[in-house]
Amino acid sequence: MASHIVGYPRMGPKRELKFALESFWDKKSSAEDLKKVAADLRSSIWKQMSGAGIKYIPSNTFSYYDQVLDTTSMLGAVPPRYNWTGGEIGYDTYFSMARGNASVPAMEMTKWFDTNYHFIVPELGPDVKFSYASHKAVDEFKEAKALGVDTVPVLIGPVSYLLLSKPAKGVEKTFSLLSLLPKIIPIYKEVISELKAAGASWIQFDEPTLVLDLDSQQLQAFTAAYADLESTLSGLNVLIETYFADLTPEAYKTLIGLKGVTAYGLDLVRGTQTTDLVKKDFPKGKYLFAGVVDGRNIWANDLASSLSTMQALEAVVGKDKLVVSTSCSLLHTAVDLVNETKLDDEIKSWLAFAAQKVVEVNALAKALAGQKDEAFFSSNAAAQASRKSSPRVTNAAVQKAADALKGSDHRRATNVSARLDAQQKKLNLPILPTTTIGSFPQTVELRRVRREFKANKISEDDYVKAIKEEIKKVVNLQEELDIDVLVHGEPERNDMVEYFGEQLSGFAFTVNGWVQSYGSRCVKPPIIYGDVSRPKAMTVFWSSTAQSMTKRPMKGMLTGPVTILNWSFVRNDQPRFETCYQIALAIKDEVEDLEKAGINVIQIDEAALREGLPLRKSEHAFYLKWAVHSFRITNCGVKDTTQIHTHMCYSNFNDIIHSIIDMDADVITIENSRSDEKLLSVFREGVKYGAGIGPGVYDIHSPRIPSTEEIADRINKMLAVLETNILWVNPDCGLKTRKYEEVKPALNNMVAAAKQLRTKLASAK
């Protein structure tokens, strides 16, 4: 019985790639240094999987930024603004597309399906001249082969690539991206031919868009693409990999009818109904790569249950055609549990990170082949039983409080228009008020202070003193820049979710449980293992301290319940909405304590609300109902004069704008600039928004500093579709990943643009 891994984390167990990338970007190391770190990581990953007994080991899943950008490079689909002149795409062009440069902005970045991973959105049109411009897939296959490891090269499939793209600026929004299939298929043929010549026997095409709601024309594109590729693929075993959800019956029928395809990879963790489709109709002689080991969470697999599933499938597919696999790439989980020295033994026994999931996949394959490791299965069963019965998982008081939420929609008593009037009387803000989203740059010194405090190398008094000094610096800077509503900069927080999870019950934390979000950006998701409650206040001290340093309004900064949920590894033994309601009650306690402490503006970030939207439209309404309700629970008890802000970033919001309005926040700040102001189109189309709104005026994920004129132009576009009295001026997102030498001039230009337009608006009256 064979085993397969869809993909593997690329950052390294200690974030080696992150540090190598940042050193290269800062010009502290060479391209050769970066290449060596990358090669060492790839070698380690391939050898680890080979040593664990995995038969189908992926290559070309390693990336310096993301796999969609790698495909854009492979196809030579570089937007003209980057002045690429042809040939093999180098680091300068590649990273300019990802991050922008001094003269041009980056390409749009958005979420990869419903994960916290991001990708760079291709910009395409009828005039794009495609060419084979990155040989990475072939180079990495050869690299593995030279190490004695035979791999399955992985490519983003041609149809998914186009469906994940957008029309370039100046191209009609109605332009059919799928019309470009005949132009990109020849490049795929070149890549496939080179892989065959290099000795590849299998090739994997990731076509995750097959799990979306696709129309007949989109499904037909898959049929056409693989029919066109069939002759080139002859002699290769071809795996089409899907993940993250069920396939519709129509999509499944399309998949199993594709020409030249040998095997189908299906997510049987999130795609629970797909198993029924397989049992009803599976093509004779084809392989099923059954994704029974969860690639998106960190819980140990229930091996007995998975073995039972595999045995049932074996009767349908045939013993020699069934392959044990992960549900998706392990990119979305942490790297190796071995590096966790501070987790207690009980919780640790419940977990499996990427390295452990590789072992689970192989153990299941061996068990199906009649070589069951009885001791391993017995240990797994004991851990499953321990988790179900552990008293630390349940809290009766929390469950009772969450149950009591039923029957109310938890809306504030007064409508938003009246609340904004009451808040303006108290806050006395100018039109086009300026603010930032929360965090300020996290300096090396600041990180050192936090690290030393956690390691007990400095006293609590020294830590508090250092953080207060940092807050004072941030407050003084904002006053100097003349920003209207201030933030304290969050110097006490390494991560917006981790910080809260550390102070809530029901959470566990890792030391090295890092997961890539985009580029070099890594997050360390907390683990929600039990019922959630707030033992004591979490932010009141720091927010009150910051407010005491200024007469201007100081925002209290919280992470909302839906974002904490979506950016954590969540318990899988109860519905997600039940856990979310528990978190909402904990945040509600904090909101009310901030208000009592004199904080009049409180931001409850829901950066990940859109991210959690199910991939199927039929499931949207239920998710949005409980997600929006959870947000309202957090602030339903505050006074009219307390202004509630929320923030959302880097997703497609237009299709959920009515749910965003239903959140009933007083002010929402939302990403806008990097997505080419896509958000504004909903207001042009007539959606009425009566609360305060701050579409981001510049992209913080790029080091580029926008000019005053550029920002003023953006604000003018907003004023064309939004009322002057509700518009706020702010960056797209928090500033923690930027440097002060970038932040100061950018914010200075932002404030100057707001003042310029205030003067213009006043003179026009």
TrEMBL record:
Residues 3-316 form the Cobalamin-independent methionine synthase MetE N-terminal domain. Zn(2+) 1 binds at residues 647, 649, 671, 733. InterPro entries: Cbl-indep_Met_Synth_N, Cobalamin-indep_Met_synthase, Met_Synth_C/arc, UROD/MetE-like_sf. Its cofactor is Zn(2+). One of its GO terms (molecular function) is zinc ion binding. GO terms for biological process: methylation. Residues 432-755 form the Cobalamin-independent methionine synthase MetE C-terminal/archaeal domain. 5-methyltetrahydropteroyltri-L-glutamate binds at residues 18, 116, 521-522, 567. Binds 2 Zn(2+) ions per subunit. Pathway: Amino-acid biosynthesis; L-methionine biosynthesis via de novo pathway; L-methionine from L-homocysteine (MetE route): step 1/1. It catalyses: 5-methyltetrahydropteroyltri-L-glutamate + L-homocysteine = tetrahydropteroyltri-L-glutamate + L-methionine. Catalyzes the transfer of a methyl group from 5-methyltetrahydrofolate to homocysteine resulting in methionine formation. NCBIfam families: met_syn_B12ind, PRK05222.1. This is 5-methyltetrahydropteroyltriglutamate--homocysteine S-methyltransferase.
